[in-house]
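Form 7-S
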Amino acid sequence: MVNLSKEIQQLNNKLDVLRRKRQAAIVRDDKLIVLQFDKEILTLEKRLASIKGQRSRQNGSKAEALKELAFHRPLTKAEQADMGKLKKSVRGLVVVHPLTALGREMGLSEVTGYAPKAF
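Output:
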């Protein structure tokens, strides 16, 4: 499976380089090269938008699957501190942090655990 985050990062890096080179070509007043960079930048931006859409769809389907689990609740600080023990005691526990892409997609404000049974 392709790591979408790595691919997004690589495309952002390439875009940054192309934009700097384009700016240098503008300073040199090289219109042909500027047009070439514009085309390349446009292609990379389209690819980047496509990958971001793909990631959004994946996170959306993961969020739906988690919301279908029977039980969820925010985790206490003590539970967060000893995550290994908690995961061993609760079968099928999935922990979602609010700062991850999935957590933002779900609109979480606290670290939340999802499981098929109450815990």
